[in-house]
UniProtKB/TrEMBL annotation:
Protein name per the record: Sugar ABC transporter ATP-binding protein
Residue ranges constituting the ABC transporter domain according to the UniProt record: 14-511
Coiled coil regions, renumbered to chain: none
Entry-linked CDD domains: ABC_Carb_Monos_I (cd03216), ABC_Carb_Monos_II (cd03215)
A Pfam family per the record: ABC_tran
A molecular function GO annotation: ATP binding
Length: 515
C-alpha cells in the first residue's frame, strides 16, 4: 500500500492529499496530492484549464474543495471543504496574485501597511513618522532600494512586485509566514526586470522561505526551481526534482504525450471565399494582426493566458476600437468599435464569461434566446407568440434541458446555458462566428452536442474563429490553428501539422522567445 503523504516527516511546508473540486458540469481538480518542502522553490505548472488557479483559490479560502481530502500546514490538518481566508492566514500561507492589489495613488509606506495595523500616536492619530521608519526597515530587510515616501505609481513594475511581496512577509519574523504563493509574478515585467525579481526570490528561499511559483516561462522554472509539480486537466501528472529537466521535457509534461493526437472531425474542402479579413489590427495588447477566415472553415486561436487572444476577438466584434487596422466581412469594412455594425453585417460572438457578458440571468430562457434578434418580433410592439414558438424550436433543436420555455436562465445548468447562448446566435445564420471557450464548464454530453451544432453551422458555410484552452477541443475542431503570443500571430499550421505537441511547444516557445 502506498504511504500517505500525511505520514511523511514534518519537513513539509504544505501537504495536499486527494484534493478535488467540482463545479457544475466540470471537475476542475481530481484527487490531487503532492507536498511542498520547507525552503523549497516549488514550481506549479500546467496549461490553461489545468486546475492551477482553482488549487490556489482553495488554499486562499476563496473556494472550498470537495469533502474527503486533506490539507496540512503547521501540523494541523483541514478538510478542503473547510478552507477559509482566516484558516489560510493562520496556516502561514500568503499570496501575491497577478493583480498585485497595490494602490498607485498611495505611498510605498501606506501600501506596505495596507492590511496591517497603522502605527498610532498616544492620542490615537496615525503615526506617520513611525510608519515611514518601519517601512524603511522592512524595505531594507528585503533589499528594496526605494523611498517609502514615493508614490507607488512611480515605481517600476519589478519594484511594485517586490513591495507587494514585502507586504506579505511583514510578519515573517514572528513566524507568521510558512509559504509564499506567487501567481505569474513576472508576467507583467519587462525582461530587464525579471532577473531582479528572481534573484530576490532566490534570496528568500536561501533564507528558509518556501515558495509555490506559478509561471508559463519555462526557462525561469529550469533555472530557479528545485521542484516542479505539473497538473493537466485537473489531475496531478508529476512532482519531481527540476534538476536536469529541459524546457522541451517540461512542455511535453504540460501538454501530454508527443504522440497523443485528438481524433479530428472528417476532413472537408474549405471554400476559397474569404469571409472575414483582419488587417494590421492594433488594439490594447494586440499588435499588427493579420488573419483570414474562409467560408466553412474553423480557425483555432491558441495562446496562453495574457496572450491577447480574447482582446483580439473582442476587437474584431467591435467591443474595442482599434488604434490601427481594419476588419472586413465579405469584403466590406466594419465600422471600428461598433458591436451593432458587426452584428448587422453578420458577425456573432459567444464570449468566455457568459454570466457577465452574454446572459440575462433573471430573464426567461425565451427572452435570452431572442436577445440578439428582437427586430424579428417587433411590429410596434413585441409579439410574444412567435417569440415563444421560435424558443420552443431552439430548445428542441439544441436539446436544451429546461423546466419550461420561460424558466429563468439562472436555473439552467452550465451546459444548457451555453447551448442557449450558442443557439441565440446560430438562429441568425451568421457569416462568421467568434467563439471564446465555448465549452468551458460544460459536461461531456453537452460538449458533444455543442460540437455538433458548430459543425452543422460550418457545413452551411459559417466561418468560425475558435479560442479554447482545451487542446483536445482545438485539435478536434480546427481546420487551421494560429498561435498568438504577446498580442501577435507567431505561427500557423494546417492538416497533419496540427498536433498536441506542436501547439503546446509553439505556445510556450513563442512566449519564451518574446520574453
Amino acid at each position: 500500500m502506498t504511504e500517505s503523504l500525511l505520514d511523511a516527516p514534518p519537513q513539509q511546508a504544505l501537504v495536499l492529499e486527494a484534493v478535488s473540486k467540482t463545479f457544475p458540469g466540470m471537475r476542475a481538480l481530481d484527487d490531487v496530492s503532492f507536498a511542498i518542502h520547507r525552503g523549497s522553490f516549488h514550481a506549479l505548472l500546467g496549461g490553461n484549464g489545468s486546475g492551477k488557479s482553482t488549487l490556489i483559490k482553495i488554499l486562499a479560502g476563496v473556494y472550498q474543495g470537495d469533502p474527503g481530502g486533506t490539507i496540512r500546514a503547521r501540523g494541523e490538518s483541514v478538510d478542503p471543504q473547510a478552507t477559509t481566508p482566516a484558516w489560510s492566514r493562520r496556516a502561514g500561507i500568503r499570496f501575491v496574485h497577478q493583480d498585485l492589489g497595490v494602490f498607485g495613488a498611495m505611498s510605498v509606506a501606506e501600501n506596505l501597511f495596507s492590511g496591517h495595523p497603522y502605527p498610532r500616536t498616544r492620542i490615537g492619530a496615525v503615526g506617520w513618522r513611525s510608519m515611514q521608519a518601519e517601512a524603511a526597515r522592512v524595505l531594507a530587510r528585503h533589499d528594496i532600494d526605494v523611498d517609502p515616501r514615493r508614490s507607488m505609481a512611480d515605481l517600476r513594475p519589478a519594484e511594485q512586485t517586490l513591495v507587494a511581496i514585502a507586504r506579505c512577509l511583514m510578519d515573517a519574523d514572528e513566524g507568521g509566514v510558512e509559504l509564499l504563493v506567487l501567481d505569474e509574478p513576472t508576467a507583467r515585467l519587462p525582461p530587464t526586470e525579471v532577473e531582479e525579481l528572481l534573484a530576490a526570490l532566490d534570496r528568500y528561499v536561501a533564507g528558509g522561505l518556501s515558495i509555490l511559483y506559478v509561471s508559463h516561462r519555462l526557462s525561469e522554472v529550469v533555472e530557479h526551481a528545485d521542484t516542479i509539480t505539473v497538473l493537466r486537466d485537473g489531475r496531478h501528472v508529476t512532482t519531481r526534482p527540476a534538476d536536469g529537466l529541459t524546457r522541451a521535457e517540461l512542455a511535453t509534461l504540460i501538454v501530454g504525450s508527443r504522440s497523443q493526437i485528438a481524433a479530428k472531425r472528417a476532413t472537408r474542402t474549405i471554400g476559397s471565399d474569404v469571409v472575414l479579413r483582419v488587417e494590421g489590427l492594433r488594439s490594447g495588447p494586440v499588435h499588427d494582426v493579420d488573419l483570414t477566415l474562409h467560408a466553412g472553415e474553423i480557425v483555432g486561436l491558441a495562446g496562453l493566458v495574457g496572450s491577447g487572444r480574447t482582446h483580439l476577438v473582442e476587437t474584431i466584434f467591435g467591443v474595442h476600437r482599434p488604434r490601427e487596422g481594419r476588419v472586413s466581412l465579405r469584403g466590406r469594412p466594419l465600422r471600428p468599435g461598433s458591436v451593432a455594425a458587426a452584428t448587422d453585417a453578420g458577425l456573432a460572438y459567444v464570449p468566455e464569461d457568459r454570466a457577465a457578458h452574454s446572459a440575462f440571468r433573471s430573464l426567461g430562457l425565451d427572452m435570452n434566446l431572442s436577445a440578439a434578434d428582437l427586430h424579428r418580433y417587433r411590429r410596434g410592439w413585441l409579439r410574444r407568440p412567435p417569440e415563444l414558438a421560435d424558443a420552443q424550436a431552439d430548445i428542441a433543436r439544441f436539446a436544451i434541458r429546461t423546466p419550461g420555455v420561460r424558466a429563468p436562465f439562472a436555473q439552467l445548468s452550465g451546459g444548457n446555458q451555453q447551448k442557449a447562448v450558442l443557439a441565440r446566435w446560430l438562429r441568425r445564420s451568421p457569416v462568421a462566428l467568434l467563439l471564446d471557450e465555448p465549452t468551458q464548464g460544460v459536461d461531456i454530453g453537452a460538449r458533444a452536442e455543442i460540437y455538433a451544432q458548430i459543425e452543422e453551422a460550418v457545413d452551411r458555410g459559417t466561418a468560425v474563429l475558435l479560442v479554447t484552452s482545451d487542446l483536445d477541443e482545438l485539435l478536434h475542431l480546427s481546420d487551421r490553428v494560429a498561435v498568438i503570443s504577446r498580442g501577435r500571430i507567431v505561427d500557423e499550421a494546417t492538416g497533419d501539422r496540427i498536433t498536441r505537441d506542436w501547439v503546446g511547444s509553439r505556445m510556450f516557445d513563442a512566449h519564451q522567445e518574446e520574453s
